[in-house]
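Researcher: Here's the sequence for the chain we discussed earlier.
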Amino acid sequence: MLGQHFYNEGLRKVVIAFGSLFNNIVITRKDSTGKTTQSMKVPLAYGPAQKFLARLDQDPNATQKIALTLPRIGFEMQSFDYDGSRKLNRIIRQKRVTDENDKKLKQMTTQYTPVPYNINFEMFVMAKNSDDGIQIVEQILPYFQPEYTVTIREVPEMEIVRDVPIVLNSIGYEDTYEGDFQTRRAIIYTFSFAAKAYVYGPVTTAKPITKAQVDIYDDLSDKAPERHHRIVTTATAPTTAGTADGFDDFGFNEVTSEWT
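Model: Thanks. This is the structure I predict for it:
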């Protein structure tokens, strides 16, 4: 079983969908008269908060030509938790006909039931003053009550489209100001999220069934049962719709019956 290569990009799609939620947050700054003097889109990046704090420590006075821009948003995956409450029967298979143009069942793709996992994300909002940080936080909180649902096309080969809830679990606050007044300040809001996603196995292909054997027994209790034996075969691939003429042949073109 293990060693068969497949990659549905399921986890990658969840990460992209999560990051796209916070990709267009804008803050504004106003003067004493209430007039907007500056408007900027908050940068978004994948990575831990420690990496950006290290950039602040290396260049606290922003003397380098390229400095760290604040405010900014960053996020990363933290852990994976199996969610048994969303578990389905593991032997259920989803099926899809791959050739639908000629309406013949030539090939079928199948995939077993996915495995439910909660993907935990940690997102931080870093700002150098309180108003910038509060603006960003206020644009996020109203949409999570406590979850927000995004639609992801998880497996294109199977045409599986699923609504994935993203739950906001907690929010933390930290002010990293230390040292003298020349030290650059950073206010950090930390968000903890959980995406209720699924992990899919490989997609396999199967040929259609061209032969079926059915044994029929009459319910006779006073003598030995009479046994009817029928074998149904097809010369070509069956059609998706039945074409019974005179009796029910389930759309098959050739029927051979044997009675014993």
